[in-house]
Amino acid sequence: MRMVDIIQAKRDGQELTKEQIDFVIDGYTQGTIPDYQMSAWLMAIYFQNMTPLEISVLTDAMLHSGDVLNLAKIPGIKVDKHSTGGVGDKISIPLAPLVAAAGAKNPMISGRGLGHTGGTLDKLEAIPGFNVDLTEEQFIQQVTTIGTAITSATGNLAPADKKIYALRDVTGTVEAIPLISSSIMSKKLASGTDGLVLDVKTGNGAFMKTEARATELAEALVRIGHQAGIKIVALLTDMSQPLGYAIGNALEIAESIDVLKNKGPADVRELTLTLGAHMLIQAEIAEDLPTARRILENRLADGSALAKFKEMITAQGGDASIVDHPTKMPQANHTIPVLAPKAGVVDQMATDRLGVASMILGGGRQKKGDVVDHAVGLVLHKKIGDKVAHGELLATIYAEEPARPDVVDMVLAAIHIGDNATAPKLIHHIIQ
């Protein structure tokens, strides 16, 4: 069997066999298939798609490219959450300690930045000392004792996905539904979870720009979950503007802390509570969504969710004092104001361009192996539906240089001011 023949078969729209897909995943994992051939295969998939059977086989091959975690030592039902990614999407950071404070066991395998979106692991590494590379033993022990841990797919857990994930980011193949769904579900199934709540983004800041494409992805993910026998639900949520106001690693950690202090942006708080409520139902801690939500609201109000976050930071080697002193995280050297060129109402945002602006500042990766600057990013001061006066502050850029006219221009081009607008609906619909 030759890799070039498999590339050509998929390029020409043929359905690949299990043997062909296994050959590709085994070869790339072992290093016998080079990046350039894998890149060509990923691009062929991007243009030709895959059948449901191919996606199932690909997920299974990636799942079994390494170890599968056995979480039997952790008592109770294990539940997890995954987002398909967006700009300002820091939901996992307040969500994990919140559901753990409510009594759920939440083993969370997370990823790094992909394309214009920020990664949970990159954000957590803005916390001095925070270790996102737990061993299997450390991971199981931490979830058992404090209820949650957020780690990378370390060691030999879905190693094929880890390699492909990095390659997709720099080859323009992030948005392919077969690659997204197999990536997400191979990691989640390998992590041994019993239940999974999916946050599938739709809008100009998501990889799935239209609701139809987002629905297609959500249905593919839910189908894989049902085939694997886990509890699963997908929520289609809005990404026509950033979540919250902060875009950038340390900036988003600070905003997450605000949510855990029972404050923070309304959209981040609402989505955290909604996703968390579904997780509590899967964990059989609550029978219905209103009850689950009340439990979570109480955990925010009584401070136990914030205390759990401190506990999680300490357990993973980080400096928990950043919760009360966020300036202990990396700080940008300069702030640059972005002023409104005219009066009106913010009616549209090119959300992906705001993510790219943060990436160009150093907050994400433009190529494989780039080092992330945790201090830089943007803070918005207006969202869709907000009135703005001429010369009023639209956003603040956090940068290492005193002037970044290129980024100022990008931000101005990404925020459109019109005559009227209403805030978009946060949660579109649910697929089970």
Automatic annotation (TrEMBL):
GO cellular component: cytosol
A Pfam family it matches: Glycos_trans_3N
Required co-factors: K(+)
GO MF annotations, alphabetized: 1,4-alpha-oligoglucan phosphorylase activity; thymidine phosphorylase activity
One Gene Ontology term from the biological process aspect of the record: pyrimidine nucleobase metabolic process
SUPFAM superfamilies tied to this protein: Nucleoside phosphorylase/phosphoribosyltransferase catalytic domain, Nucleoside phosphorylase/phosphoribosyltransferase N-terminal domain, Pyrimidine nucleoside phosphorylase C-terminal domain
Domain Pyrimidine nucleoside phosphorylase C-terminal: from-to ranges: 345-418
Reactions this protein catalyses: 2'-deoxyuridine + phosphate = 2-deoxy-alpha-D-ribose 1-phosphate + uracil; thymidine + phosphate = 2-deoxy-alpha-D-ribose 1-phosphate + thymine; uridine + phosphate = alpha-D-ribose 1-phosphate + uracil
Record keywords, A-Z: Glycosyltransferase, Transferase
Superkingdom as given in the UniProt entry: Bacteria
EC number: 2.4.2.2
Coiled-coil residues: none
Record family assignment: Belongs to the thymidine/pyrimidine-nucleoside phosphorylase family.
Function: Catalyzes phosphorolysis of the pyrimidine nucleosides uridine, thymidine and 2'-deoxyuridine with the formation of the corresponding pyrimidine base and ribose-1-phosphate.
Subunit structure, interactors included: Homodimer.
PANTHER family linked: THYMIDINE PHOSPHORYLASE (PTHR10515)
Entry protein name: Pyrimidine-nucleoside phosphorylase
